[in-house]
Amino acid sequence: ILSGVELKVRAGEFIALLGPSGCGKSTLLRIAAGLERPDRGRVLLDGQDLTAARASDRDMAMVFQSYALYPHLTARQNMALPLVMRRLNAFERLPWVGPFLGKTRAKLAAIRDEIEQSAQALKITPLLDRKPAQMSGGQRQRVALGRALVRHPKAFLMDEPLSNLDASLRVHMRAEIAELHRRAGVVTLYVTHDQEEALSTANRVAVMMGGRILQIDTPEAIYRNPLHI
After folding, report:
1. Phi then psi for 203, rounded to 5 degrees?
2. Which of 19, 26, 70, 153 is least surrounded by Cβ atoms within 10 Å, i.e. has the fewest?
3. How confident is the chain (229 residues) per 10-residue block, as mean pLDDT?
């Protein structure tokens, strides 16, 4: 699917992977996340070789096209889950044991504070006690972004996160994601087939076709000299 792809992302940079369906964008993102294993090549983050590392050990947060929220959990519980799994051991996570341990209570209080901060930044505080079925598509997308943001990862990976939204909401959420990146200052790989979306959010755009990166440049340069494919 991918052939000879080399992509270097600078610290704090937002790169959009732009191309038609089937060109390898999502595969490249899944390899970075550790969900797929490449036949050849390496994945490096801060100089560390992560090619053989499990997805859970890569300190990357992924936002999926389908939001991937647990329907039986509230927004608060969905956002808390990655922090609970990372910071509490199996014994502390037991509902009839953990809450009664002093150290566990302190950890849970810290997690609640971090969720409140992230929710405030994304303007979803009133939604924290709602379940996904009680939210609109844009609200569910914000919760999915909040679940990624609260982890403070080394990299954000976003796989067409706006494709399920209507046109007007997509425009609004583009600005939200660009602002989120500006505040977090974290490396972001963003998959999209929407040229306007890529050019309006990213620092650089990598144009993909047939499993290769054909062009990578700033949005301004690509807008002036588009690659006709």
Report:
1. -75, -40
2. 70
3. 92 95 94 94 94 93 89 96 90 78 86 92 92 92 90 92 82 85 91 92 95 93 73
